[in-house]
Structures
1.
Amino acid sequence: MFIDNFPALEGERAGLRAMGARRLLLLGGIGLILTGMFFGDIFAVYTLHQNAAQVGANLEAAANAALSGSRAAVLTNFVNVGSFLENRGTKVDTHVHMIDFGYLALLLAILQPWVGLAESSKKKIAWTFLVGAWLLPVGVYLIHYVGLARSPLKAIGWASIAADFGGLLVLLATLAYLIGLVVHFRGGGVGRSDELLNDRSLEGRMLFAGGLTLILLGFFHGSYYAATDLYKHEAQDYTLLAQISAGAAVGVRMVVNDALSRYGQLQGAKAVNIAAHAHSIEFGLLTIMMAFFQPYVSLRAAWKRRWAAVLLVGSLMLPVCVLLEMKLGLVAGGAADFAGMLVVLALLAMWIGILRYTGGLDAAASSRSAPGVQE
Amino acid sequence: MSGSQRLLIIGGVALAVWGMSYGLWYAVFAEHQALDNIGGSLAGSFAAAADRNPVRMESSLQQYREAKYVYDRQVDVHGHWIGLAMLLIVLGIGFDRVNFAERFKLMLALDLLVGAAVFPLGVFLQTMSHGPLPRAIAIVGSGLVIAGLVGCAVGVVAGRSTDISAA
């Protein structure tokens, strides 16, 4: 009876069977994206700016040490800069890889009907993918803390080895699905349809059109940045560092301080442009993927539309506010963090809707298989 | 599933596998060395400034510049190959919403696939040559992707107009 409330067709029910490959990849994928986004928001609020300040302070200290002719102090400060940059870099990599693996998991979930392999094999591959997709970001996160402790290698520690092994698992799983797709299409299984992709609900269309628009905006911005600023920024990076070291070598503090200040601003300008470009395209991909999964979101139609709107507003607002950070400072930064939370909330609501849907399917399946219940 | 959809999906998953293989190779064999080179050369230039040694300072800075240039592009190549691969798969799945004739959609799919492969390839070639050819390849590749995306957007809007007028 409960299942009658769901707009599911038989094909979808079969495609989302309990602990099947599609369900594993769907729920695991959204879980990865949510964790990655939540981690990114925490990182942005509590670590990113503080870390950037520490890098700047140590670079300044290194420049001052060069001014006073203290080679040892220069090297000490650069060790600190390296440590702070590693801390920042591994956290950004954790955030990015977790979300991207989540996206890939969602895409592979959609493609499952066209993977010409046995369901048991598809399930094993899905588990392999998910284990690798968690292992890589967790390994990358630990690189800064584990370092080279007890490592058999000179430059790569155990955390890096674990991360690389996770990447290998994801790679092999994706390759296996690629072989499955080729097997299916070569076997003439072209006509198989999936009702999931035939959905043309209002929220699905909103998300699809909005996602395509976000991707286009991200591409235009990336092209504009590459054409106008990328090479200029790279040249400035070198010129300013040259000014700092040359100023230090001849003992002119004013030149060093001026170049240090402009170097900090340059790093900020580069970071916000790259982040706006990447987030616009990634959120565009996410909203299109969520458009495909709307039939699985078991919420009232009005709420599905509201959450679709929240996802779109957050997805547009975040890259715009990130771009404005250079002009408006912390106000724009706070608004970008808020937009990130909107995206996380909308995604969480859709995930809960999908969990309700799968729960309904399982309840119906178990009631059908119970003694005395007729099909 | 149409031929254009199959081209985008198979091409997209293959490009993702390629991009991941490149990333794995890079992480294991090149990234740590590149980061050590960047950090070491920059520290070396400041240390040379402290020693009042302008020749070594300049050569260290040049080394830093080259290492940073190559590192930024190698990371970009990995990210763009996989990002564009996911875009191809997404578009392949939703390509039935693009309301053009299949023959034109096949051309659109081919344009997107070639652009997605060639754009990061142009960026990768910049790590080997600072000449204009790699940049031109990257520009052509990104132009193909943008043109394909605009085509898809027009096709989706055309589909909606047809739906509305039919209703």
2.
Amino acid sequence: MFRTRSVTENSARLRRRRAKRVMDVLTVVCVAVVTGIGTSQAVVEGLQEFVNRPPGVGATPSDEQTATNTRPTPEIAQVIPSAPNPSPQPIERNTRPTRPGSDREARAMRDGHHAAQYR
Amino acid sequence: MSRQQAVAYTASSPSDDTIQGGQRARHTGYGTTAVWFFRALLVVPFVLMGPEVVSAVLGRPDGVANISSSVADVLGTSTFLIFIMMLAVTPLRTLTGWTWHVILRRDYGIAMFVTAAIDLVLAATTTGDTFPGTVLTRIGGHTFLVAGTLSTLLLVPLVVTANRRAQRWLGRHWKSVQRLTYVVWGTILVHLFLLFGLGTIFLDAVAVSVPLAVLRIPFVRRWWTAAMHNGTHQPTRMVVAVALIGIFAVGYVPLVQELAVKGSAAFVQNPVRD
């Protein structure tokens, strides 16, 4: 009786191990299929194409979004007039005589007496 | 669904001996109602995609283009949300001691496979505008597509063994086959990282995953179960539970919002084109 039970247990264990192997094979086949597809695509399309996302997919902005972000919309460009170019200021020599209280004297006063004698 | 099918489906840790021992979910009146409510939620992605699919089958203009725009947003997000709901079954049981919802693990696992498989089929047949080339280009032409397709195909052994008969057939090996769920979890996160970078959706997925992973750590789980059983560390458990649920919500709510926005747009056949 014990022998019969032992034989049954052994066969059950063997069957379970075989079942596990079947599931392992199924898993490996699934992985191999995806790996094969991925590898073939990387070879055919090129690695750069394989790694990079196309525009508009996931976090990559679409072409339209990129174009919109880089330049203002035509409406805004039409509404806002372009700023006039400032005319260049003529360079004039300061011909006015230095008067008491002028900038230069005020600076000298501010910087102190010791500074004034070295000017 | 018979009571016999109240068997754990996936993501049960080795210490989950009550499930392995064949304990079945006890159903109260409220429990049964809640179970059917959560089962009904599984129909949502198909309802949202239904009008576009019907439109494409009837050959209406823009039918295929609409599916191409919506399929990843609606079915992809739905697949991930269903997966997260499935993964949440065991931690919820650890946190609360409830058993009424354990039956949902199998249902959510199978629903996840169905959603992912339909997503893959629709993507392979309709996204030619985004991924010009053959069917193989559309399911494996980019790194993120390879990760997504791998996640879907790895569900096959899980679904094949998601029944009582397979559990008897595999015996103690059943658990090791079901641990493939963790590999799928990893490949899905890789898929989202390759798709969105360190962007919002990937970070949402990580935020959702962290509490579920923490409550699966054997030490944490043992400590929690023992403390709950003995009625000790109540304030600590309360604070930890609130923190974990908060982190989970931070990731989960934006994903549901994403599905609501993109799904409703798909339902009225005016999909959001990125």
3.
Amino acid sequence: MLNRMINDFSALTEKANFIWRETLAIHRRSPETRIASSLSPIEIFVTLYYGEILNHFPKDPLSPLRDRFIISKGHGSICMYPILADLGYFDKDELLRVCHTGSFLGGIPDPIIPGYETVNGSLGHGLGVSTGVALALKSQGNIKDVFVLCGDGELHEGANWEAAMFASHHKLDNLNVIIDDNSIAMLGRTNDIVSHGQLHERFAAFGWEAELVDGHNISALYNVFNRMKLRRQNAPKVLIAKTVKGRGVPGLEDMPLSHIMAPKHETLDALLELKK
Amino acid sequence: MLQGKPIAMRDALLRRIERQMAVDQTIFFVTADFGSPVLDDIRANYPNRFVNVGVAEQNLINVSAGLALEGYKVFAYAIAPFITMRCFEQIRVNLCLLSQVRPINVNLIGVGAGYSYVVSGPTHQCYEDISIMRTLPVIRILSPSDHLSSAAIFDTCDEPGVRYVRLDAQILPIISEIDSNDLNFGFRLLSKSNGNICFISTGYMTHTTKKIINHYTHLSGSITHIDLFDLTNFNRDSLLTLCGGSKLLVTFEEGFGGRGGIDSIFQKIVASDLPKTKFLSIAVSAKYSFEIGNRHELHNLVGIGLEASIEKIDPLLKSIDFL
């Protein structure tokens, strides 16, 4: 059993490396995409999709049997494109046309893309919409889970905290929020701009069950996601996933201005060659 | 034959919703801590399909979007300036944009159109909502003038879409009966004439316009009066048939003039289809006002009261030899 799990985690790690390369390749072809914020949540996405955490149906993306997954930090999810293509949501050749005329894969993903639930990009919307979805599922007696991915920067939007109050008041324990806490917004470190303090404590003060995790540690993510899915104790759940923005790209990784920086083509070419 | 005495527009519409909730399990009601006597019945009778998000209009819209994504027909209820302006971007992104990709049914009910919160001042009064909502291409804007038209609007809310219903906060006299033809046309023809003069009003201003027409008793055979309540989907051809040959067309609204309200709709129509028609907008002068007074006094201060309107209309009538 232990060996099997180790093998599985090894396979997930290999998949994360594959997605990292594919994401860099997309950015190499389409520099309009936000690369740094798309490198921090790779292991989160890989664990959710390939670790069989999410119930999802590539050939029927809006199946009523799916878990709902709302990706609030739209810009920073370009790494979802190769995941969705790899899983069969759409043809892999589409990855060659990101941001090109006629493609449905833009610089910020929208629900015209199979696998995306909501309109993203404008920050601070996903959590509120998710609370409505979670309330609806509860009201209908639907046991499916609602997952949400938010960035730490977008938590400066006040609407998130309206939703946070609402979710705990209504005991939305089918709601699982993941914060991709790469600790950098657009113009610098989030806590230098307006400090969140200890984010997990802040959510806990709002009545949420809050956990911290290394957002690049796949086995840790796998365990905590499974725990979140099983746990329904009359409180919404939040996972603060500590991540690194621009991970693995020299000159970009953890740089305060990484959101608006673009790595040089030679850097990307060297990295892609190196990791073949 | 007009039935019964007037009631609040919100109670008329909410009663239709409350009755339908008994047979339609897919209706969900969301309020931003704003009430009404009928709302008490909804809360008591359907606690699983009612939620109060508190004074949090951004979340009101977001929660409504989420509920609608899961198949609920949602009615979201708040004070008019707050449900249109505090959460404009939530309406834009999570209702309007989203509705073009995924079918959702969300109906925003805003109470307190125009000056109906008379003594509450400019925060609670609402002179921008029509203009602001008209900038969103997919939203249907409904502006009834009495409780009968308010109740009838419920019949437009069954299909997927995003709608904004703006209601007066005061109990207003009944204008006229309304039938399915009126709903299809998006307006009520209140008086038909030889077509020389056309008055088009919406909401509370339909009542003022009726008084203005009474003032011009000698012109009663010349003035066509249209109560426009569907500001986005009205039948343009039918309306043009009624006012196509007019020498003068006047619009009446309780909103800022020249900023995208119904005057903008008809300025465009006059420019494109009625080149010989003179046009006048009776609308709120472009300035906020902190004065206290009754609605009639406030309206005259901003140029839309009975006397202020007549003062603007008289010269136009003279120019077409009707005075």
